[in-house]
Design brief:
It is a single chain. The chain is of the alpha+beta class and about 150 residues long. It is built from 5 helices and 3 strands, in the order βββααααα. A 3-stranded antiparallel beta sheet has the order 1-2-3. Strand 2 (about 15-25) and strand 3 form a beta hairpin. The longest helix has 22 residues, at about 80-100.
Length: about 150
């Protein structure tokens, strides 16, 4: 199996962009990875375009560590936030490809089940006034809504 290309998709939110990358293979399996950038989304997309041509195309998604190493050290300069975010999103998609190809969930590939429940964290508190009192009020509203479900 070889990587034939990547496609990027950016979803904007009020305070950051979420960048989704699809890694496509010659066997028709597509893996998905996600990362977020604060103010550097265009730089990330540019890096991924160059990395696709220089490192990603033709790579074996099952040899993700080799791909990570080439992406991190194969270019001149020290890897910073943009490069490391690009590496992470591609590696995540490679794990997704492995799971799909083997017919097992990625959590099983990464060491197995540890717990039956995971607490969820989600809030829209960044839309409130940025004071402890406003956060407290927003948290009380979220807690009340969660306990009613």
């Amino acid at each position: 199996m070889r990587i034939t290309g990547i496609s990027t998709h950016v979803v904007g939110t009020p305070w950051r962009n979420l960048t989704y990358v699809q890694v496509h293979t010659d066997e028709g399996i597509t893996g998905v990875g996600e990362t977020r950038m604060l103010g550097h989304t265009d730089a990330l997309i540019g890096y991924l375009r160059e990395a696709e041509a220089n490192h990603i195309l033709g790579s074996d998604p099952f040899a993700a560590e080799d791909l990570v190493r080439r992406m991190k050290y194969g270019d001149y300069g020290r890897a910073g936030e943009i490069v490391m975010s690009g590496i992470a999103v591609v590696e995540m998609a490679c794990w997704d490809i492995k799971g799909k190809a083997l017919g097992v969930p990625v959590w099983q590939l990464l060491g197995g089940k540890v717990t039956d429940r995971v607490k969820a964290y989600a809030n829209g508190w960044y839309t409130t006034e940025r004071t402890p009192e406003a956060y407290h009020k927003a948290a009380q509203g979220s807690w009340s809504a969660a306990t009613r479900r």
